[in-house]
Amino acid sequence: MSVDIRIAGARESTKQLDSEEISSLVTPGDVITTDTGFMRGHGTYMEDDQLKASVAGVVERVNKLICVKPLKTRYNGEVGDVVIGRILEVGQRRWKVDTHSKLDSVLMLSSVNLPGGELILLELLLLLDNVTQAEVQSVFADGSLSLHTRSLKYGKLGQGVVVHLSPSLIKRRKTHFHSLPCGASIILGNNGYIWICPTGNEMEDKTGGYEQNLEPVQRADREVISRLRNCVLALAEHKMMLYDTSVLYTYEASLKFPNI
Amino acid sequence: MYFVCFFLKDNCREDGRGCEDYRHMEIETNVVSNTSGSARVRLANTDILVGVKAELGAPAPEKPDKGRLEFFVDCSANATPEFEGRGGEELATEISGMLNRAYDCPACLDLQKLCVIPNQQCWVLYIDILLLECGGNLFDAASIAVKAALYNTKIPTVTVSRDEGIMELEISDDPYDVQKIEVKLAPCIVTLSKIGHSHVVDASQKEESCCLARLMMGVTQNGTITALKKEGSGSLDPTSVEDMIEVGTGKRVGEALNKSLTTALEEEERQGTKSKTLGFLR
Q1: Do strands A65-70 and A39-40 pair parallel, antiparallel, or not at all (unpaired)?
Q2: Which among A3, A8, A159 is the nearest to B22, CB-wise?
Q3: Which ipTM did the prediction report?
Q4: Do B9 and A216 touch (CB under 8 A)?
């Protein structure tokens, strides 16, 4: 049992950590430029011949195009992204999936790799509230996403923890599945959902998750998962980009503290 | 849902806590200048601000020689969009009702001291609780903030003079001529959630959504239970209720919580004006 109450004034300031100041940080309404030679991109608007930011974030400039990349946002899907989603609705031949985008995403039955090629009831495959991992197949005109789990890398996720973060904190990399040496695997979904699970479940056997391993996870493994989860949340709290190396370094640094 | 339950085996929770561990709490008193006493408690993501205002008023007819406590909870729509409009009202009455019951115990707070003239004038403490952010376990956090704010409350001294049968009240306007309230035995609420087969203290929002039944109790520093309330759609076995209250967790955790809070408050008072008010922007 532990109860830890501290005085707010005693907290050390964390300011010295962020020594470099980001100059391109804007809040809604901030004037980005008064130069009319630029093109208006996402997250900006024109007012009185001035280009202003409509979201809080970092200004990015590609040639003449100015965009503001928001710090906190819904997920804007792109083809080929790895996403983690939660099944919201089981339909006739499709599932509705929550992927933290503005509209619900769909996973069509035809986009699923069926085990053994036989047709089985959809409900048996993915149930309500199951967590699934998929790739974005296409983006519809209204911005909603169509997913697929064609490869055996993707599919239903078994035992593990989901963490919900802002999508802009996930660094785009070649691979988003990582089996970390500390004994757990992590999937950094591009949509800001992160899956942490013990290594040796879905990742290794690549069955698409249809054969579920329901054996209890050992306490030691769960402690590793909890610690990783807290590390990921700590990184997000300090607005640090998440990728395999940053997570692993944080994990190693956290080992100094015996209490998770 | 499955995994949260599953995680609870062997006393290890999703965030690595044991079943009887509270998350870290930060506390600051005297944060609002135009109140008699105020406090702000931050428990992980839960953020609660409490202000106490002392005013002279009439005592309740059934308790003519005692002061009154009036709880009022405001659920800010900033905390969660669900509170917009009248969305937070139900929760607000639940919290204020629970606090009312927990403090409705003669041993925990000496209300007689708040009486100025029996049957006519007494101090009424209006306790306003503002929920700024919800991160689970609102009841416990609110009760801690209330206790801290009461500890911080300063009531001006009143002198009563009789002039030919007419009573006259004189309220001192010297900011140092004040009286404090003895809150050592004021209760804190401890909520025990039943998730799977375990009883969990200080449930996070995720855990709260998995919990079917919970038991809330007001516990004082010496282990007296002043109020008890069961909530949720699920049922509790009598043995498990007993287990929650007597044998195990409830009392012990409540005592530890109160002691820890008193230590923190005394420490802050000792620092006095040396420490700067941190406030809300940091």
Answers
A1: parallel
A2: A3
A3: 0.79
A4: yes
